[in-house]
Specification:
With 292 residues, the protein is an alpha+beta fold. The protein is built from twelve helices and 13 strands. It folds into three domains: 47 residues, Uridine Diphospho-n-acetylenolpyruvylglucosamine Reductase, domain 2, CATH 3.30.43.10; 115 residues, Uridine Diphospho-n-acetylenolpyruvylglucosamine Reductase, domain 3; 112 residues, Enolase-like, domain 1 (2-Layer Sandwich), CATH 3.30.390.50.
Length: 292
């Protein structure tokens, strides 16, 4: 299939891109890597009047560490972040999840900001960034605005960005020294959309007692899901098999994932529970190893 007709704009700097967005509003659609947008165009599920290609806005392509925080320009390619020693050394959860994003060809073109702005609940990056308590910096000709994950991810393929706003940067706080982490997902084939998954960060004390936990579920609903009660229930306890099993069950207690030909809702719920348990066990082992 071929996309519907559209006008094409290719601004060369951020100011020009924001001007075009202001003029187009809801009639415009931003093109970065195009790995999600182009299929939507070809199936005519997206019909923008104007396609705004930001690939020349190279000021949005960067990875840097400032005051202990990771700053990711929205045009940073997935492959660049995947190969980054900075990311691998200080945000290993993000580095681990990146290798699960599609295939190498997709990661070579796909962008971190594009994955966030697309807001697919089966995508790895929104889930991991949510678990890491990332913040999202948007710009428009009206000014700048910062959103947290609950504000950013509003529904399936829906974000909190206004039509004239451009996601410019993702800011990721530092992981605590010695924090354990794990990312788990299951797909029928590597590169397919996952049927379920979980991203976990655990901080433990010298006695292997959990001080803090972050859990985010992939494919559990229309947005990344943080089961806050399950996180809090882990605090103050060593992550034994029984504690992990109870937390995993609690994490999926209120989710109702949509079923399809690849797996029904009950199957997906059970799958996510299993993956949460494995991720917690793996994260606890890393945290306890660092503490010992």
């Amino acid at each position: 299939m071929k996309p519907p007709p559209f006008e094409y704009e290719a601004p060369r700097d951020l100011g020009a891109a924001l001007d075009v967005l202001e003029q187009c509003g809801a009639d415009g659609k931003v093109l970065a890597g195009g790995q999600s947008l182009v299929p939507l165009l070809n199936f005519r599920l997206a019909r923008p009047e104007v396609l705004i290609d930001i690939n020349e806005v190279q000021e949005l392509a960067y990875l840097r560490r400032e005051d202990g925080r990771l700053h990711i320009g929205s045009l940073t390619r997935d492959a660049q972040a995947e190969r980054s020693r900075l990311v691998a050394d200080h945000w290993p959860l993000l580095a681990d999840a990146l290798r699960w994003v599609g295939h190498p060809q997709i990661r070579n073109r796909g962008t971190v900001g594009g994955s966030v702005a697309h807001a697919d609940p089966a995508a790895e990056l929104p889930v991991v960034l949510c678990a890491l308590d990332a913040r999202y910096h948007a710009r428009s000709t009206r000014g700048a605005r910062t959103l947290d994950s609950e504000e950013m991810f509003r529904g399936q393929l829906q974000t909190g960005l206004e039509p004239d706003e451009l996601l410019c940067e993702i800011e990721v706080p530092a992981m605590a020294p010695g924090a354990g982490w794990a990312f788990m997902e299951f797909a029928r084939r590597h590169g397919d959309f996952a049927l379920g998954g979980a991203a976990v960060v655990v901080e433990s004390d010298e006695d292997a007692v959990c001080r803090r936990a972050a859990i985010c579920l992939l494919g559990a609903g229309p947005t990344p899901v943080r089961p806050r009660a399950a996180e809090q229930a882990l605090v103050g306890h060593p992550l034994t098999a029984d504690v992990v099993s109870a937390a995993a069950a609690d994490a999926v207690r209120d989710i109702r994932p949509r079923g399809d030909i690849h797996g029904g809702s009950e199957y997906r719920t059970s799958l996510i529970e299993t993956l949460v348990g494995r991720a917690l066990t793996g994260a606890a082992a890393r945290a306890n190893g660092a503490a010992s």
